[in-house]
Amino acid sequence: MERKEIEVFSELSNFAIVRMPGRNFPGSVIQGDSLSILLKHAERVHQMAIGTGSLELIDEAALLRELLAERLEYYEKVITASGFSLPYFRQRTI
């Protein structure tokens, strides 16, 4: 871990907006527990999409699920390596 100064535009709970050094535009911070919830919803949407038989919808839902899963897996790797425990119970099928 290293400490850096960042620009903070909003610290509103679950809606933080910050700009990292070297970035042109601010980003939206998603807390780990909120990211976990988003992934659960994406997994449900994917399962529902499968029921439609629409290959395009299934593919898009799968991509959304995979992108969120990848981001959450990286979050988990980084915080556990830094000595933190997860702020949620880990239960995923991916």
Write the layout of secondary structure elements.
Blueprint: E1 7-10, E2 17-19, E3 27-28, H1 32-52, H2 55-81
Antiparallel strand pairs: 1-2, 2-3
Helix pairs in contact: 1-2
Taking all Cα atoms into account, the compactness measure Rg is: 16 Å
* Low-confidence regions: none
Task: Calculate the terminal CA-CA distance, rounded to whole Å.
Answer: 28 Å
Spatial strand order of the main sheet: 1-2-3
Assign a percent range to the helix content. Answer: 40-55%
DSSP E strands, number: 3
Can you tell me about this structure?
With 94 residues, the chain is mostly helical. It folds into 2 domains: 1-30, no CATH class; 31-81. Helix content is 51%, strand content 10%. The protein has helices spanning 32-52, 55-81, and strands at residues 7-10, 17-19, 27-28. It has a 3-stranded antiparallel beta sheet with strand order 1-2-3, with no helix packed on it. A hairpin with a 7-residue loop joins strand 2 (17-19) and strand 3. Helix 1 (32-52) runs antiparallel to helix 2 (55-81). The longest helix is centred in the C-terminal third of the chain and has 27 residues, at 55-81. The protein is globular and about 50 Å long. The two termini are 28 Å apart. The model has no long low-confidence stretch (mean pLDDT 94).
Features:
single chain; 94 residues; mainly alpha; 2 domains; three-stranded antiparallel sheet
